[in-house]
Amino acid sequence: MKMSWHDGRKNIIGENVRSLRTEAALSQKALAERIQLLGYEFDRLTVLRIEAGDRFVADFEILALARALNVPIERLFRDVNGLAS
Hints:
- This protein is an all-alpha fold.
- It has one domain (14-76): 434 Repressor (Amino-terminal Domain).
- Helix content is 52%, strand content 0%.
- It is built from 5 helices and no strands.
């Protein structure tokens, strides 16, 4: 399956994930641990790669990120290069 990149990035939510994680005073490791408690295989490197835009993010992972950050899914897409508001 061929994946398209957006402005050289593999996802468009990474910057918002970083911002929300920082606002919640969570380390990358702590966020990964929260997601692990939801039953997903995540580690600090996974969070790092998502935030850097170096990793594709599946829909179920977006849901897990939103739950772990305690935000609505829509918040992960807020102000993303003019694509969502």
